[in-house]
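Postdoc handover notes: sequence design on the structure in folder B. Input tokens:
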């Protein structure tokens, strides 16, 4: 997207603000940052909401813009594949509409579809990507913003098609075309050049290309550093410069949040796993297994197969024979989704042969004593991957061994394997109706984690009434089917299933906004609850305004309440309440805690917000930040809590003010006047905010903020008070929106805004 589209975005924001759509205007400019910075919960809410409003407002460019950035957030760092293809195809069709095609950003829809195909199966979709991209590049101006992204994807498709040498030549030609047009290649194009050179067997040249690209601007600047580090490590490892490669490779805690680099990072780790600086452990195997499942959910078929093969090779290297075989089976099964084999069958066969040729680690003791050895093992240092192999001969025959073996399989990411063993022992070969509750619970967990819902429903049908409904309630909770979860949990409670069922009742009822039912389910067994459950009951009882239940819960956890009946309205100190912002982010509002789970907002909020000063909110009493260890920091610490709901609106109305900052004495007098009236006021500007002197043009310290007034105070009263309180200031304050509302001195306020550059 070029300067034209960004200028259009700015104009659209201004138009939306003037029309009263302040929240929409704020959110609009933040979408790219949400996509690049990984603020996906915000993006997944805000982008569709903006697209829906844009459609209602008859603004197709705005709709395209929001849909595009939502898709970028999915196919970029999250590398969604098959699950995003249909949306990418629909976006491209939308971009070709007559009322959209002139938008400067529409070529990005072609690139987005090519990326979605690449995420799904790069080699399998290579030819289709080339066919899609070629005409778009033909019609793209090298001086425009779309050209670099399109040619980057074209080169990537050439590499995936096995035409790495051709890709190198193509990129060189594209870079020359960019230079001739006065533009520089993007970092992404430079990095793709390095990938092509590496695939062509020219590792030294690949490193040179990466170094040359280091100074280029990135289309995704947030991802540049870790993506560069991963690719650099891969190239250096290929050159056997292992120490440098290890230094370049980002740590797992960095890449763990960025699925786009999972495969290359794993490939680099495998190449470096023989060095003393990279430890090939069961923890690594567990992480890679989680990544494999991630790509399975996202429809990243090629990445899933590639990771399974790399993880299998790493398992062989650490003698994890059972895991290597399981990963070979997984890769072979997942390969059925690929459009092109590209050597997968040969690699699967090689992995199996390597596993067969590898000796398993020697067991710590005789077979009949394995369970005792397992229980005696150091839980911190023990290797669960090895215990899988050591317990396997007993699993399915001995119940104690089966429990440990199958739950460890689930822990390492193989719940389906564990479920198969448990099922055979408890269902096929035993009487499931008389099984221990713990065994039913273990098997239920494994089936849920393996996403074998039909099998779990089959299991539930074999169980006694209480156990049946508890198992189904757990399944529906895991899938967030709240009405079904509540119904089954209530049946389980009625049949005597115990506290676990009541917890599900509470969780589901809260999700369904039935706080009375949720609180009651826990209150009835208050003495049996852990503190965490008591707090949950308090929150739901507060939302239901069942103050007697709140007091019982507070007494249970030792929290003193002065009053004995009615609403709890006490001053319990300052807290920060975290509320949603219009841009999909979070807003911290200083508040006064009035009860175990209530607080009254103390700061005025801008117009268009769903909350304001004076509102009484319910919050979750679980701290969002740990208490500082330093005693001095503890004294200044204002604890943050997440808002749950608005219990009672205060009815306050906010008014915006802006202008040059007055003297300290004038400002102190102004704030005193506001405090005397009980009008919350807050300055949102900081020390960097400056305005223009109307005659000299010099920069003056500025101030802007909001004042909130309670119900019953008319806008005319607010205008009159502000006028009286600021009339002696050396520079006037403006409150243009309020002036327009009361139709008083509108021209004067417009002049102040213009002259001071507010």
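Designed sequence:
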């Amino acid at each position: 997207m070029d300067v034209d589209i960004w200028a259009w975005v700015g104009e659209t924001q201004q138009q939306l603000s003037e029309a009263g759509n302040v929240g929409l205007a704020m959110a609009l400019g933040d979408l790219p940052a949400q996509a690049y910075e990984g603020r996906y919960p915000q993006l997944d809410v805000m982008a569709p909401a903006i697209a829906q409003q844009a459609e209602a407002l008859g603004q197709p460019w705005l709709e395209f813009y929001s849909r595009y950035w939502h898709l970028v957030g999915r196919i970029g760092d999250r590398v969604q594949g098959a699950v995003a293809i249909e949306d990418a195809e629909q976006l491209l069709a939308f971009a070709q509409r007559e009322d959209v095609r002139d938008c400067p950003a529409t070529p990005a829809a072609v690139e987005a579809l090519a990326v979605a195909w690449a995420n799904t199966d790069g080699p399998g979709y290579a030819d289709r990507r080339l066919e899609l991209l070629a005409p778009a590049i033909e019609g793209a101006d090298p001086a425009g913003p779309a050209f670099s992204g399109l040619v980057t994807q074209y080169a990537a498709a050439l590499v995936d098609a096995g035409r790495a040498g051709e890709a190198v030549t193509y990129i060189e030609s594209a870079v020359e075309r960019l230079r001739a047009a006065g533009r520089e290649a993007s970092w992404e194009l430079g990095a793709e050049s390095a990938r092509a050179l590496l695939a062509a067997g020219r590792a030294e040249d690949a490193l040179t290309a990466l170094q040359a690209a280091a100074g280029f601007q990135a289309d995704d600047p947030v991802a540049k550093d870790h993506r560069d580090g991963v690719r650099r490590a891969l190239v250096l490892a290929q050159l056997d410069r292992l120490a440098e490669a290890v230094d370049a490779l980002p740590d797992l805690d960095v890449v763990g949040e960025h699925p786009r680099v999972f495969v290359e990072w794993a490939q680099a780790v495998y190449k470096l796993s023989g060095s003393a600086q990279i430890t090939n452990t069961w923890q690594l195997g567990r992480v890679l297994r989680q990544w494999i499942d991630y790509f399975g959910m996202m429809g990243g078929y090629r990445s899933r197969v590639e990771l399974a093969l790399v993880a299998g090779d790493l398992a062989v290297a650490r003698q994890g024979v059972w895991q290597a075989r399981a990963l070979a089976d997984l890769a072979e099964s997942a390969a059925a989704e690929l459009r092109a084999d590209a050597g997968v069958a040969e690699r699967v066969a090689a992995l199996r042969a390597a596993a067969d040729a590898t000796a398993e680690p020697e067991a710590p003791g005789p077979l009949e004593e394995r369970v005792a050895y397992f229980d005696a093992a150091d839980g911190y240092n023990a290797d669960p991957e090895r215990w899988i192999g050591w317990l396997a001969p007993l699993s399915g025959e001995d119940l104690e061994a089966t429990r440990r073996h199958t739950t460890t399989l689930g822990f390492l990411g193989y719940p389906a394997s564990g479920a198969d063993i448990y099922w055979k022992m408890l269902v096929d070969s035993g009487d499931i109706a008389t099984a221990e509750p713990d065994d039913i619970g273990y098997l239920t967990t494994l089936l849920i984690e393996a996403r074998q819902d039909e099998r779990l429903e089959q299991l539930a049908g074999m169980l006694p009434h209480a156990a049946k409904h508890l198992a189904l309630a757990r399944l529906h909770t895991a899938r967030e089917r709240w009405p079904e979860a509540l119904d089954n949990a209530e049946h389980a409670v009625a049949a005597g299933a115990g506290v676990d069922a009541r917890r599900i009742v509470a969780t589901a009822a809260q999700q369904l906004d039935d706080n009375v039912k949720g609180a009651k389910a826990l209150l009835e067994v208050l003495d049996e609850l852990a503190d965490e459950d008591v707090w949950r009951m308090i929150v739901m009882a507060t939302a239901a305004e069942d103050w007697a239940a709140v007091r019982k819960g507070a007494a249970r956890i030792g929290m003193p309440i002065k009053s004995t009946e009615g609403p709890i309205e006490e001053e319990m100190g300052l807290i920060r309440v975290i509320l949603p912002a219009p841009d999909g982010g979070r807003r911290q509002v200083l508040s006064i805690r009035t009860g175990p789970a209530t607080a009254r907002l103390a700061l005025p909020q801008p117009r268009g917000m769903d909350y304001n000063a004076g509102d009484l909110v319910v919050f979750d009493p679980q701290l969002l930040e740990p208490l500082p260890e330093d005693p001095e920091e503890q004294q200044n610490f204002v604890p943050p809590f997440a808002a749950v709901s608005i219990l009672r609106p205060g009815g306050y109305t906010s008014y915006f003010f802006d202008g040059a900052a007055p003297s300290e004495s004038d400002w102190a007098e102004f704030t005193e006047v506001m405090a005397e009236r009980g009008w919350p006021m807050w300055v949102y500007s900081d020390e960097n905010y400056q305005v223009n002197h109307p005659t000299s043009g010099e920069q003056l310290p500025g101030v802007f903020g909001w004042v909130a007034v309670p119900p019953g105070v008319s806008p005319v009263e607010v205008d009159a008070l502000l006028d009286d309180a600021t009339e002696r200031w050396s520079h006037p304050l403006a409150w243009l929106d309020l002036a327009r509302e009361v139709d008083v001195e509108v021209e004067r306020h417009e002049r102040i805004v213009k002259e001071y550059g507010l």
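Context for whoever picks this up: The first strand starts at residue 574 and ends at 580. Don't rerun without checking with the PI first.
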